[in-house]
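Async update (no meeting this week)

Hi team, since we skipped the sync, here's where things stand on the single-chain job. The sequence we agreed to prioritize is pasted below, unchanged from the tracker. I ran it this morning and attached the output directly underneath so nobody has to dig for it. Comments welcome in thread, and please keep replies under the output.
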Amino acid sequence: MPADGTTTKRSLVKALTYRVLIICLDFTVVYLLTKKTDVALGFMVISNIYTSVGYFLHERIWARVRWGMEPTKTV
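Output:
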């Protein structure tokens, strides 16, 4: 368990609920702008794919950055 006490299950549920929220917001905004369901659905699907890939790559890059991290203490 990480130092902040977060479980893997909690992190997974948190990530999934966030994606659902973003998908709904994407659809709503595009639909309000275009009034076209097919365009909103298409954007929602494509956006979810490229933003998920972008987030994954962003996380992997930051996993290599040591700036701002406390050194681990050995006992």
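Quick observations from my side:
Residues 19 and 31 are 18 Å apart (CA to CA).
The first helix runs from residue 8 to 34.
Reply here if anything looks off.
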